[in-house]
Amino acid sequence: MSEWPLGAGEGLRVGDIVEKLGGTLLGDSQRRVRGIAPLDRAGPADIAFLSQPGKRAWLETCKAGCVILPQDFEAEASRFAASILTPDPYLYYARLAQWFSALQGEDATPGVHATAVVDPAARVASTASVGACAVIERGAVVADGAVIGAGCYIGRNAVIGAATRLHPRAVVLHGCILGARCIVHAGAVIGSDGFGYARDEQGAGVKIPQTGAVVIGNDVEIGANTTIDRGALDDTRIGDGVKIDNQVQIGHNVEIGPHTALAGCVGVAGSARIGAYCFIGGSAGILGHLVIADHVTISAMSLVTRSISQPGRYAGVFPLDTQANWAENAAAVRQLGALRSRLRQLEKRQDKNIDKT
Amino acid sequence: MSEWPLGAGEGLRVGDIVEKLGGTLLGDSQRRVRGIAPLDRAGPADIAFLSQPGKRAWLETCKAGCVILPQDFEAEASRFAASILTPDPYLYYARLAQWFSALQGEDATPGVHATAVVDPAARVASTASVGACAVIERGAVVADGAVIGAGCYIGRNAVIGAATRLHPRAVVLHGCILGARCIVHAGAVIGSDGFGYARDEQGAGVKIPQTGAVVIGNDVEIGANTTIDRGALDDTRIGDGVKIDNQVQIGHNVEIGPHTALAGCVGVAGSARIGAYCFIGGSAGILGHLVIADHVTISAMSLVTRSISQPGRYAGVFPLDTQANWAENAAAVRQLGALRSRLRQLEKRQDKNIDKT
Amino acid sequence: MSEWPLGAGEGLRVGDIVEKLGGTLLGDSQRRVRGIAPLDRAGPADIAFLSQPGKRAWLETCKAGCVILPQDFEAEASRFAASILTPDPYLYYARLAQWFSALQGEDATPGVHATAVVDPAARVASTASVGACAVIERGAVVADGAVIGAGCYIGRNAVIGAATRLHPRAVVLHGCILGARCIVHAGAVIGSDGFGYARDEQGAGVKIPQTGAVVIGNDVEIGANTTIDRGALDDTRIGDGVKIDNQVQIGHNVEIGPHTALAGCVGVAGSARIGAYCFIGGSAGILGHLVIADHVTISAMSLVTRSISQPGRYAGVFPLDTQANWAENAAAVRQLGALRSRLRQLEKRQDKNIDKT
């Protein structure tokens, strides 16, 4: 259940919001809002926002005390006690929500829980917080203001940057480095062995020790139960501001450029290099050793099988249909090479016929 | 190794089974069975069942003391000391197996393990069981008969319903609510942050605090390492009787109707609404904000890219073939728009030719 | 950050390496190497290797003290103080890296950590190591030299074979058996319930108790956050030498033959049987009850929908294209059955025309 509206406090004055976050204020600057709510659920003590033009009609019945609106919505604004015009209401909402969240946040108390197991040769900043049953090995560093959730595991010589937060049961294995202000969600595993084997003379796998690490920049978010493998010899590298959703798998020696986002269930095979500001849709896959340029968008469940040098949108997914239609079309796909040949044949014969006529 | 047959006890009398679970008893009602086994492995002390017509021939060599058979299998029944006829042997087996399981079950002892960390401001029912190294935060509620496995984490103000069982290392984050008789398997994470960002002026992600929760009905099962994100403002909602397999990812604000089942590795993007009694095949995907009607079946590894308003079966997957055939057909797929144009062209030209002749 | 080069010790003499691992030594057998590094990063104290012919040019600027080269690279070998010729440099590297790793390894100290919770009726070998906050239930067996990482859970009557290593937070549930020298990565869950329900008269799922176990051979590796379900009645079985990457999902009663490898994010549905020496590409899927022969390779993200009796390579994935081209081709795919009919029609009409001319 949403924790909005805030259970306590006076809330924020709309005038103060605009002073801090910008935008054009229309209406009553003294109006107070105590929480953020969707357009259809907001009440007089809430602030709402319109980010999708398709929801414009919702404004007519919206009961919010204040609304964040796109620049040219002055007419609609008049319905509300107060409103804020801004070029990007969604971004405005994000920043305001962070502010509310900070006000309301009950942050982890600094200190190490009595049941945590911290090696004497680990260094944990006095301003950091270590939860119940967490384990921190020899040589690990937990920097200022970092929060290590209950049951987390930090391997030897791993580094957790300042103000980085690990949710319960996250695992960061030996030697891996996380920058500042990262968020790692529950169950994520950073630094597991890459999937590397040679084949012996009988075809059995001979494990290649994975001796690289994972190096993660600042402001990176890593989803629940996501896994990022350590490199074989060199490191796996995740750039600043990268956002990774739940259950993503990143193979060894992958490099991901700054501010790229990967949606849930994506798989990236070993040694792939993904550029900056890319977006990889949910359940998509990227084969090993490929190079993907900056500003590339891959559609959900598409498989990237060759390198991409041009920015833009790419897709490759069989279109959904009723089972019956799909079965017919899929059968035809399996004959497609032959159909193409028959078409060529027809074209040739018709050319001849035309010559004859 | 299967724990069947039961190592102790007298087993169940076939007459008692039929009295409790129904069906038509043929043969010796005094016959006792001590466990359930597959047709090909069952011995005289076992009960077996036939649910797939294709296995009818297996009956001829089956050594079970009793067999559960479809309604019209009276002839086959005569081979066995006892048998039970029922319209749905598989359902009958499920119920009988639950009975055996309850008889045999060694249930968790009520009480809190000495190494568990339970906040004084959490409420744990005296009939509930909390395993070793589990952590339960302030304000959380664990209801009657609930079982919290070793190493589980229950966040502040979360609610675990009566007789709900969390297997080891499951995580339920703050404010999330589970109904009664749910089962959550090891490593599942309920209530991780949704994947929500605005983009700032430079294209970097600005995190949107996820302030909703996850609300789960009664009799829901959630697979190992599955993740369910909390809502952004509103809640993510999972209906009664929903069954979710392992490694499924449910995005923020998703709603799933009662008795729908999702097979392993499915990904459901944010704000999708799935109806009741649906079946989503393994590794399938559902894009964000779509609405899917009741009684819809999606084939494995198919991507749902638009809303579905009609019940029925849907599919969309490239048919498997040898690598060589696939390569030829896939190349033709990439020219398919052009092939279609060439076909149209041929048709036009032929129409003209026919006019001429 | 890579831990190479070794921080201490004299390293290995090239002559000793060849004596132990074979190959033809060229150059200075007294040369010492202290670590393995990629061709482009290696220095005079490192040994490098060339496994991809495409990197032959890298040799010209490589500064390694010794290089492992393919058999016919005698000319290139002359550039280096020492070199080793071998038919399979990658396999040679794997074995050498294991040797270095063993030299350098700081292995877990035998003994049970003070915070681990070991049931008095479990048997843990005196040479085994049990990490902080690990939980081992009644009747479980941990054999000689096994390493149970911090926060692992071993259910009642489970068996962990000799020298098998479980990384932090791995879960092995009751009755499951792991052979010798296995590696289980962080967050993996072995023995969760299979996804099995009957449908009752109203269409609600009735859970089928999963009473089989998981039986795993020797030398098996299981990736981070991978899940392997226990069998319904019989066991799920994983053969010797099988290598499973991260986030793979194996359904109940699956059987996997020896030395097969499954890449990341693969899903295998219940009761599928995969042969020996297969390779299943990343994010591929295998439907339930199928049988796959030995020596079969499935391409990434392909769905196996029928049994495969012949060894070879198989694929089925929609080719990636620009979003615009994809949209055009995907639309045509949805009309493909109709296009095929139109082509047939054209052929018939043309045949008639030809008859007429």
TrEMBL record, chains A, B, C:
Single annotated GO MF: N-acyltransferase activity
Domain UDP-3-O-[3-hydroxymyristoyl] glucosamine N-acyltransferase non-repeat region: 31-99
One example of a Gene Ontology biological process annotation: lipid A biosynthetic process
Active-site annotation: H252 (proton acceptor)
CDD domains: LbH_LpxD
Entry EC no(s): 2.3.1.191
Gene3D superfamilies: Hexapeptide repeat proteins, MurE/MurF, N-terminal domain
Listed PROSITE patterns: HEXAPEP_TRANSFERASES
Keyword hit for Acyltransferase: yes
Cellular compartments per GO CC: membrane
Protein function: Catalyzes the N-acylation of UDP-3-O-acylglucosamine using 3-hydroxyacyl-ACP as the acyl donor. Is involved in the biosynthesis of lipid A, a phosphorylated glycolipid that anchors the lipopolysaccharide to the outer membrane of the cell.
Family: Belongs to the transferase hexapeptide repeat family. LpxD subfamily.
Listed name of the protein: UDP-3-O-acylglucosamine N-acyltransferase
